[in-house]
Amino acid sequence: MAALRTLRARALVVPRLARGHAVAVEARTAPPADGAVRNDWSRAEVQRIFDGPLMETIFRAASVHRLHHDPSRIQLCTLMNIKTGGCTEDCKYCSQSSSYKTQTKASRLVDIEPVLEAARQAKANGSTRFCMGAAWRDLAGRKSGFEKILTMVREVRGMDMEVCTTLGMLSPDQARRLKEAGLSAYNHNLDTSREFYPKVITTRSYDERLDTIAAVRDAGISVCSGGILGLGEKDEDRVGLIWQVGNMGEHPESFPVNTLVPIEGTPLENNDPVQVHTVLRTIATARIVLPKTIIRLAAGRHTFSETEQAMAFMAGANAIFTGETMLTTPCTGWDVDKAMLDRWGLRGMRSFEDAESVEVLDKAATTEAEASVAP
């Protein structure tokens, strides 16, 4: 026992510092809290999130989601192809490219009234954002077509709907005119990481895509930019895409997560389907890195079961495309989607309501705080 008391006494001895000697203490900076909006992510940080245990990552993403969004709200968007096929780009996933022999045939720009009728139908079915896509590399030499699209934008915005277009590359002046017409958002996906991108597209550079995004943002239009899973990329490329948008000066307003729908005649027609756990990892990682961004479960959603889609909503997805078709691929119909959302206790987001979720949470927090101090 005496020996034991001696050992304990020695263990409690704290060496005294010599007088007059300053001791340097290394300052430790706490890591940023989850949910903070950052533009200084390292690629290694994003990779660690992506590689984490899936259920833990989803829980973490769901927690971040609730800091900035109402988890019961899902944005319903409808997409219409207003100019099909004949595109001079060589995107290997796209049936609208003139480089490949597919069943998609080139057509002229749709007239204004059919577009407005489609928008009315979308609104009547609960969609709050109407998106219009044209298979063009850019708008060069398309003056009359551009004027027609500007009219479409003005008319759809007049229906109190959010309006999004994807028309290829834009100049700053074209972006300005779209803004003046009332455009809410512009879609221009980066598709994948900078490193893998040349294996998918050679007719438009990664930097050209970034230039269009910059022109859109400078014009005051919200940026919609995401990617496609299943192009043959690896996990590090999915991480590279999220890292790229996570370090933009301002995060995109929305981040579409598309899964490849292989189309006969395209170079990627035989690609293997993307596993659902890969989609969930991508969504959860994007939610943590882009806490305020709307994450849209986009092309390929029709291939996932209802339960798999619910997991995507849990992981942070809060927007879907709904309606009859996407651009050239299938889409789940309005009635099916509304029934699914109802079963899961979810509801549509109202138009121009991106900030409402934060206001809802702030009001709830205020009410709870007032109740806790009430006598």
What does the model show?
Strands 1, 2, 3, 4, 5, 6, 7, 8, 9 and 10 form a ten-stranded parallel β-sheet that branches. The protein has 375 residues and is α/β, with parallel strands linked by helices. Helix 8 links the parallel strand 6 and strand 7. Helix 6 (172-181) packs across helix 7. The protein has helices at residues 2-12, 43-51, 54-68, 112-124, 143-157, 172-181, 206-218, 235-246, 276-289, 306-314, 334-343, 356-373, and strands spanning 73-83, 129-134, 162-166, 185-187, 222-224, 227-229, 254-259, 294-297, 319-321, 347-348. The longest helix is centred in the last third of the chain and has 18 residues, at 356-373. 40% of the residues lie in helices and 12% in strands. The chain has one domain: Alpha-Beta Barrel (TIM Barrel). 40% of the residues are buried. The chain has twelve helices and ten strands. Its cofactor is [4Fe-4S] cluster; [2Fe-2S] cluster. This is biotin synthase. One of its GO terms (cellular component) is mitochondrion.
- Measured as a percent range, the helix fraction is 25-40%
Which consecutive residue ranges, at least 5 long each, have pLDDT under 50?
1-25, 355-369
Q: How many domains comprise the coordinates?
A: 1
Roughly what is the average pLDDT, rounded to an integer? 88
Mind describing the biggest β-sheet?
A: 10 strands, parallel
| Element-by-element helix/strand order | HHHEHEHEHEHEEHEHEHEHEH
Please state the structural category.
alpha/beta
Q: For this structure, what is the CATH class?
A: Alpha Beta
State the helix count.
Answer: 12
